[in-house]
Fold this protein.
Amino acid sequence: MQPATYPALKHLVLIGGGHSHAIALKRLGMSPIAGLKITLISDCIQTPYSGMLPGHVAGFYTYDETHIDLNHLARFAQIDLLIDRAVGLDLEQNRIVCAEHPPLGFDLLSIDIGSTPQASDVPGVADYAIAAKPVPQFLQAWSAFLERVQRQPEESYSLVIVGGGAGGVELALNMATRLAQLLPPTQFGITLIQRGARLLPGHNRRVARQLTQALRSRGITIHCHESVKAVTADVVYCASGLALPSTFTVWVTQASAPSWLAQSGLATCERGFVLVKDTLQSCSHAQVFAAGDIATMQNHPRPKAGVFAVRQGPPLAQNWRRQVLGQPLQPFKPQQQYLALIGTGDRQAVASWSGLCWRSARLWRWKDHIDRVFMAQFENLPAMTPAPEATIPLPPEHPKMYCAGCGSKLGASLLQDVMARLEIPAHPDAIVGLAAPDDAAVLKICGDYTVQTIDQFRTMLRDPYRFGQIAALHSLSDLWAMGATAQTVLATVTIPYATERISAEVLFQVLSGVLQTLNSSQTALVGGHSTLGDALALGLACYGTVERDRLLTKSGLQPGQALVLTKPLGTGTLLAADQQGRVRGRDLDAAIAMMGQSNQAAAQTLQRYGATACTDVTGFGLVGHLVEMIQASGQSVQLTLPNIPVLPGAIATLTQGITSSLQRQNRQAAQWVQGRCDPAWFELLFDPQTAGGLLASLPAAQAVACVQALQAQGYGQAAIVGQVMAQTTAQLPHIELQS
């Protein structure tokens, strides 16, 4: 028997990457608990910090300065990160229903998803107004609007903001600042609509007067006692008969919660927010915690303000820890009053405290300092996670050691439970498969060529479902590159040491990802093997068939042909940077999206346009796989470097010297390369790809039409990256670089 790393005994799942969760996660990362597995579900990989949002709208801060990189935080805290949106809860089975992932089980759940403007039955709001929350969608719309303004600076623009609370007022002032940088004041106008008698009803009258004066001094029109009755693409109609032209309508009304929280059976307040005790634990379900805007403290209700979410972070982390260790929870009482610093868009701020009010540039500098200090705690996190400071005790029935050999397999009942949860379509050629498992699968063999391949690697992601999905795409790509149709797959999975329930959940997530890929390509999973180990790993043996006249190999390069690459390069350096905590979340997100794109349709398109040679660009990098092609074909090629597509952030990480551990070996293929270029771009040519694109040669006359067809199919960066050169007998095959 072999000693094992400490197994996962409890599973804490966090829904949302809000301020409370970010702070609590950092605390757990600084003092981990052995035996606690944590998964964060967030609909964005970089979560906005509300305190700096208005300044970002005004152009005072960059995107990265105002967003917490959850991938960076997850890497530090050694947790799984699922980029998805929760849409439901099954509190009897303790499972979370997600928009894209399969249901995820948990032992302990914490919710911090913020709030959104209250859903409106006003006609046209859903179609033509932009809600201020969720913030990522608002920022995307605001960015698109600014791009429109920059493209068409001769046009005039009218903005209408519905909601005269602090959020609406601060947005109006900061939007005015940004637009004034792009347009003369005569070409844009901003109108603020408030249903009540005055602005900022949650603050004292002195604050309301000060900010009303600030709005009017900036030329912003204010309409109080107005209710919106309809919104169209270019007009906001009020009940009074007022009609306001609008090219950009923002909805900033009372906060609300998603309906699935109350539908799950959780105790909620009259507005749908999760009711929690002083311990931040649900009033109805002991396994659920909630914090931030989505929670309402039953004994201490407070306004939906970021300051309370920030203050809840430390006690939330403390009570997670106490709950999993079986210790009594500690109560938390929030402060009665809070200081609000409202930016006026001119590098000044208004302070609101009880009945007091004052405005100055010094207050803005103070606010700026507070915000930057808050964000700094999530930067430059330690490269190594500290040793655990606490340990969840092993239950008596859990093994103290793990066996090797067949003793390392997952148990039969566990496998049966997982397979029962999965929906696995049968394959018509499978005589014996998973419908009636035996020692091996039995298949009918048809008259076509049989194509077989196998791949296996450890997870490179903190999302088991996405890992399964991408690993399957990576493996099947070998078949598609050869013109084959995938038929069946055998899978071997290594699951990290854990309790049976957690092991089953991880296996279910991984195989669900595999099946998502297999089902979309009409490929059958017919069997496999599972074992326990130190890290999550997945191997797939793929079987396919191909008609003789459709078989593509690496030996088909012909002089004069064009080289087409269907996907951008850069996954190797970005994944290496991720391991070092040095990649931007949105750059990693783009890489994951690229890896999650199937090569199946691209392979069919390349065949349709006359491809004669093809390979998938994976572990050996572009040059490594191209060397295999020129050796097999006896031809030389020319690469046009400016045409080679690259993932965002990849050149930056290569410039910093961040490369894959396979890079050194891949670079040995440089002996086949003639010419030099920028060092970072040269390294890109040897960057090992995971689930990379297809590289094919086809008639030059068909290349442009082929690339256009690929781009129309969603391969947006597909490009002609070179050509096959005429080869003389005196020349050895080589790769020539053209800048």
